[in-house]
Amino acid sequence: AKTPSPRVFSGVACLQVDRHSDDVLIVVHGGSDDGEEVDPGGCTRVLSDVWIFTPAAGGSSSSGSRATGVTGTWGCVQRDASPSECDVMGLPRARARHSVCVWMGCSMIVFGGMGDEGRCLGDVWTYDRGGVDHLKQGWHMLHRGETAHSPLPRCGHSSSILNDKLYMFGGEAE
After folding, report:
1. Long-range contacts of 145-153 (CB under 8 A, 24+ apart)
2. What is the pTM of this model?
3. pLDDT digits (tens, 9 = 90+) for 30-43
């Protein structure tokens, strides 16, 4: 596929190409395919793929996206993978209804969501574009979410980062 499949409940972030650039990329992570609901969370098959949209120089054209007129290219930087493949490769498992926040311009933080078994997740991951000096490009688990001091696993919540602290509000917990 040359573009992401139709989906709902995905995480999206607009990241800088690197810390010293005004150029941006749009990153789409996970979500659920757009089929009929099969579980109480409203998800069918959850996804673990990562797609990046790179806007073309100049920003817009009549031949661009139907919604905005923006042209550019899509690239799949991580294909959808099974839970065992994700575990072996050190990637977050498939999820939908998770939160995504921009951190330091060129990284995104992913928290929670609904996993492929219909259960809420409580792990925290960062996806780095390679612009943060102490992290290399790719996924890094920040917190497994299995301690007494962790937020409850949740999905459908909102989150934001302020002064290097992640704040969450609402959502559904088990």
Report:
1. 145/112, 145/121, 146/122, 150/122, 151/111, 151/112, 151/122, 152/120, 152/122, 153/112, 153/119, 153/120, 153/121, 153/122
2. 0.82
3. 999 866 554 555 55
